[in-house]
Task: structure prediction
Amino acid sequence: MKNRKLVLIAVSLLFVTTVAAQTFGTKKRAPKPQEYGNVVINNFSEEARIAPVVFSHWLHRADYTCRLCHVDLGFAMVTGETMVREEDNRNGLYCGACHNGKIAFTVKPQNANEQDNSNCDRCHSLGKSIKPEQDFHEFVKGLPRSRFGNRVDWLKAEELGLIKLNDYLEGVSIKRSKLKGPDNFKMDAQFVEMPDIIFSHEKHAVWNGCELCHPQIFNIKKASTVFSMQDIFDGKYCGACHGKVAFTNMDCLLCHSSPVY
Result:
């Protein structure tokens, strides 16, 4: 009976999520697993008569923490706000911190004629048929599965040691002692008989550290930030990551996980 009730609640919330998405935003097709989390960067590309950049989150999150890019390298959490220029990358900033020919392929010209640089299309790929160096379906074959998004349970993959996350970049990151994270805590659900949320600081800290979420997204003081599911649907608070890159809001019981008695 309890399991049946949980299923009914999850289905109901899934319906609410779908209706909200259609009511408050433009209905779009669900992205393919290999496309989930992709970001198109087009601040200056078309102006320079070059195809916009397609940034693949899954490829980078398999090797690096979110904190490394969004804190140490300074990438904004909102698409287009960082205003990265090619000159920045070639000077070792942003993408260029790794794409230097040592860690990853270089963004600097390989030939005297810059227009003949074969690496350009590897990033500036929107609208082009570019074969990726790493095939998504081959990469995820041995990883634990999930129902939505990339269809990969990234948390479980990290826990099992199937992916190794790098959280330090020489010359960019600061060496610091590991902090003891706060314990898990419960957040009351706003719907009758909906399971409460169990929030794990430990799981989030593995990927985000503390400074990615605090204080820009959430206040430091517990329970001082009040938000609703609609805020999350609108990309605020938890929605800054969930529904964009982290697992989607469609999988209700991943957050609403406290047993209902």
About this structure: The beta strands are 39-41, 53-55, 185-187, 197-199. The longest strand covers residues 39-41. The mean pLDDT is 87.
